[in-house]
Design brief:
The chain has one helix and no strands. The protein is about 70% helix and about 0% strand. By secondary structure, the chain is an all-alpha fold. The chain starts with a helix and ends in a 17-residue tail after the last helix. The protein is rod-shaped.
Length: about 60
């Protein structure tokens, strides 16, 4: 293996690591978004005070 071959291989490894990192960050972001969605379905963000109609939920 020549030094040039080694550099070419290293460039390929670096490109793959950058790609994997981008994919991982995207997956983490998607997971966080999904978790927020699930949380908002399971428990509403603000429980309403009894007898008070909210502007977002008119009765």
């Amino acid at each position: 293996m020549t030094p040039q071959d080694a550099l070419t291989n290293l460039d390929g490894v670096v490109a793959q690591v950058k790609l994997d990192r981008a994919s991982t960050l995207c997956l983490i972001d998607s997971t966080a978004t999904l978790q927020r969605l699930i949380d908002s379905i399971i428990k509403p963000s603000k429980p309403e005070a009894p007898g008070v109609a909210s502007s977002s939920n008119p009765v």
